[in-house]
Design goal:
Strand order of the largest sheet: 1-2-3-4-5-6
Shape: elongated
Radius of gyration: 33 Å
């Protein structure tokens, strides 16, 4: 017995089976549309079927019955009634609509006929895909797939080309010529989802009359069977031509295919790109009745006219975005298209750029990027070292097209071609950036961390974390000329340095030797203007060192070392005169201690020490000049970023009021560093549910989870503007607001990731952008710069319209970065990057 009513009993079941048998023949079968998104609706006819754990073996599963009864409309209840309940159910995944989704797979087996049936169900219980396997008289595995998605019911027996070429299910093969492959099951229209390379072996999972379902390291797609045969190698490129195709003509997936891909209703303009004998490979633009095809093939007799004079696509003012999309899908053969062929097809690019770093941490290498733009379409091509196409992205202004494999920098992975509607970032023209100066460094991530008079302090990071972190640099660069003055190499260590208050001396702490029970460090004081050494000292520690930190105040630099046994640590403080290197005082504290940053140059140095629990922590302030203890606060912690309580304040940050932030069990507290006295306290509603972020010395944003979940996971959150002079909440809105800046009396921030302009008086929305910003916002001149990552966009602050994208400014973040890639200081934009560049731009 089943654990629930199936809704099919007696005559009703027989009647339904008759419907199955009548509606599922190969001829004239009605195609059933399936969801075109990984967000699948619940099935109408049935909820998810759950068989009893002790369901008895049911002998009703017969391959012939399954073959005739499978339809895309089949529900789980109907499947159990038709095929029985003796199946194995397991959680799996299916590559569906350019993404992997969770599925529930039912597997039926009939050992007598060596057959098995796989039914892939969505989590809501909708049938997504079905395939029946059995053996032919020779013992070869064969497949049958019902009408589902863009596939019509057929069997591997119907694939004559596979039989003639010895292509069978289970074989590991490779295409003979690179070609686009398709998602044939998530929609009634074929969707390009993958590019098959001759150099990448794939496994054949199933066969239909025209296609082979292939698996490339978990990525499943459907490739026209002809591309697995030797004949496909004979097709060659031709000079591209615009052609007219006669009404009623048939276009095919490959030459001499027995089954057409599409029939042309009226006269069509297409683009001939390849040839094999009397057959031409053409790019067919989308129409109201079809879309998404890659290269199709048409016999020469079906072509009415050849236009031999070719105008490159992005030099042809009359070409439509649909036509460009067709050429891109058909001609952009990843791994083989040459730069010469691309120039012939598309013309010379309007912009040349550098890609992101494609080397592992510790090294820097970029690739050439070509960018084509017109008023309605954009195409970006990235080239390998041997001038072959490595990745591309095509998009149009309407958002209908956003396709390609942009971001892939190696062909040692499957080439996944996204083909989805909508765009994550705005469609904006590129704007050339007029740099005052620009330099290139040895490491990809570069950003401003400080200033020392006329010298900029620029951090360089390799992008690696943990054991993959190889290199960190600090550069001294002349602010006016951009000339590199000096470089300090930290190796794989963190940026550990202290800068004197006069900004004339910077002190580095270089580990020399680390062993069990002993460590040695080299202290190097450098002139920030020219990089010359002022003094050096060697520090010998006859204990294990667990943690180091450094900070400066006035003319004193302090080093904190947590040493001793792991169970009983002591923090040793050693203060030196930055001018001479002489020790001026020392002190020690119980437990592991860390120095707080001192960006506001208070006359004290503050140490956090104690155990891991908040109640065991304490803050201790020492007079920077004498070493005398000024104050001590117990049960306070400055560990505010790991739990998401307060946004990180990097070395360069000038946001927030004077003082330092700490917390106790219930409050976020702003305190005076000189006296330790509280200046302001803000409530912490519950752990991980509250987040604060300073805008400037007057205002702060607060995010609050309202459903008891951690803020990151909360689906019900609010954001408030806090007046730091009074602690008063000025207004509250629904959503998560952050990255706030104030320009001309208007608050600009992200709300749930989207840039927004807000009336600072009442929280009223002035405008909201349609795209997401992944990084910070910056006011520069009369425009709002938004970090889209990797691109930076310039928005009109009045309307919110994205006016341009900054040409060849590529940014990115990783968890070790302590600052923003972009920084605006004194009317200058300091543009860092994630591909080795750093430059200065003035307001024009």
């Amino acid at each position: 017995m089943l654990g629930r009513s199936l809704g099919f009993k007696g005559a009703a079941a027989a009647a339904m089976l008759a419907v199955f048998l009548c509606s599922c023949s190969n001829d004239g079968a009605e195609e059933t549309a399936l969801p075109t998104s990984s967000s699948l609706p619940s099935p109408v006819a049935s909820s998810v079927f759950v068989p009893e754990a002790s369901a008895p073996s049911d002998p009703r599963f017969q391959p012939e019955l399954a073959r005739s009864g499978l339809t895309a409309k089949l529900t789980q209840d109907e499947a159990a009634e038709l095929l029985g309940t003796d199946f194995n159910a397991e959680t799996s995944s299916l590559y569906w609509n350019s993404d992997w989704i969770r599925t529930r797979v039912w597997t039926y087996q009939n050992e007598a006929s060596s057959s098995r049936l796989l039914l892939h169900w969505s989590e809501e219980g909708r049938l997504l895909y079905a395939v029946l396997y059995d053996r032919d008289p020779e013992g070869n595995e064969r497949s049958y797939i019902p009408t589902i998605g863009a596939l019509t019911a057929s069997s591997s027996d119907d694939n004559q080309l596979a039989a003639e070429n010895g292509i069978r299910i289970g074989q590991t093969v490779a295409v003979k010529a690179g070609t686009a492959a398709y998602d044939m099951i998530s929609s009634r229209e074929p969707r390009i989802s993958y590019f098959a390379l001759p150099a990448r072996p794939v496994t054949i999972l199933s066969l239909t009359d025209t296609f082979a379902e292939i698996d490339d390291d978990g990525v499943r797609s459907w490739v026209p069977i002809w591309y697995l045969t030797n004949e496909s190698e004979g097709a060659g490129d031709i000079a591209p031509s615009k052609v007219s195709i006669a009404p009623g003509s048939s276009l095919y997936w490959y030459p001499n295919a027995g089954k057409e891909a599409v029939t042309v209703i009226g006269a069509e303009t297409a683009y001939a790109l390849r040839v094999l004998g009397d057959w031409y490979g053409v790019a067919l633009p989308d129409s109201a009745s079809r879309h998404g095809f890659g290269l199709l093939w048409v016999h020469k007799d079906q072509i009415d006219d050849f236009q031999t004079e070719w105008k490159p696509v992005f030099e042809d003012s009359g070409i439509s975005p649909e036509a460009i999309a067709a050429v891109a899908r058909s001609a952009l053969r990843v791994g083989s298209l040459s730069v010469t062929a691309a120039e012939t097809l598309f013309g010379r690019p309007q912009y040349l750029e550098a890609s992101g770093n494609v080397e592992p941490p510790g090294k820097l290498k970029t690739l050439p990027v070509w960018r084509y733009e017109n008023a309605d379409a954009q195409l970006v091509l990235t080239w390998s070292d041997d001038d072959r196409l490595l990745n591309y992205r095509y998009r149009d202004r309407s958002g209908k097209y956003d396709i390609g494999n942009e971001g892939q920098h190696t062909l040692e992975q499957p080439v996944i071609l996204k083909a989805v509607e909508g765009a994550r970032f705005p469609f904006a023209r590129s704007e050339a950036v007029d740099y005052d100066w620009r330099i290139e460094t040895e490491l990809p991530f570069n950003y401003l961390v400080g200033e020392a008079g006329r010298t900029l302090l620029i951090a360089g990071e390799d992008g690696g974390i943990s054991g993959f972190h190889e290199a960190s640099h600090l550069y001294g660069v002349d602010k006016v000329t951009g000339r590199k003055l000096w470089k300090y190499d930290f190796g794989y260590d963190i940026h550990l340095f202290a800068l004197s208050e006069a900004r004339q001396t910077i002190i580095f702490y270089r580990p020399l030797e680390r062993g069990e029970g002993t460590s040695s460090y080299r202290l190097i004081a450098m002139n920030t203007r020219d990089g010359k050494t002022r003094w050096e000292r060697t520090l010998e520690i006859q204990e294990d060192v667990w943690e180091l930190s450094s900070e400066a105040s006035g003319d004193v630099a302090v080093l904190a070392l947590a040493t001793g046994d792991e169970e009983q640590l002591t923090t040793r403080l050693e203060a030196r005169d930055v001018r001479t290197g002489q020790v001026v005082w020392s002190a020690s504290l119980e437990g592991s201690g860390t120095l707080l940053p001192n960006p506001q140059r208070a006359p004290v140095v503050i140490v956090q020490s104690g155990g891991p629990a908040l109640a065991d922590k304490k803050l201790t302030a020492f007079d920077a000049r004498t070493g005398k203890m000024r104050w001590e606060l117990k049960g306070r912690s400055v560990d505010l970023t790991s739990g998401g309580l307060l946004a990180a304040e990097g070395r360069l940050s000038s946001r927030g009021p004077a003082g330092f932030w700490a917390r106790d069990e219930e409050k976020l507290i702003l305190a005076d560093p000189t006296t330790g006295a509280d200046k302001l306290s803000l409530p912490i509603s519950f752990e991980y549910g509250t987040h604060y972020e300073a805008i400037d010395e007057r205002y702060m944003l607060k995010q609050q989870s309202e459903d008891g979940e951690r803020l990151y996971d909360s689906a019900d959150a609010t954001s408030s503007l806090i007046d730091l002079q009074t602690g008063e909440t000025l207004w509250t809105v629904i959503g998560k607001a952050d990255k706030g800046i104030i320009m001309d009396g208007v608050l600009y921030c992200r709300l749930d990731g989207k840039p927004r302009a807000v009336d600072i008086a009442d929280g009223r929305t002035i405008w909201e952008a349609e795209f997401e910003a992944w990084g910070s916002l910056h006011a520069f001149g009369n425009r709002l710069l938004v970090e889209g990552i990797p691109d930076v966009y310039a928005l009109n602050p009045i309307s919110g319209r994205a006016e341009s994208r900054l040409h060849d400014v590529r940014i990115g973040y990783y968890e070790l970065i302590d600052g923003d890639m972009l920084a605006v200081r004194d009317g200058k934009l300091y543009a860092g990057s994630s591909n080795g560049y750093f430059g200065r731009v003035s307001v024009k």
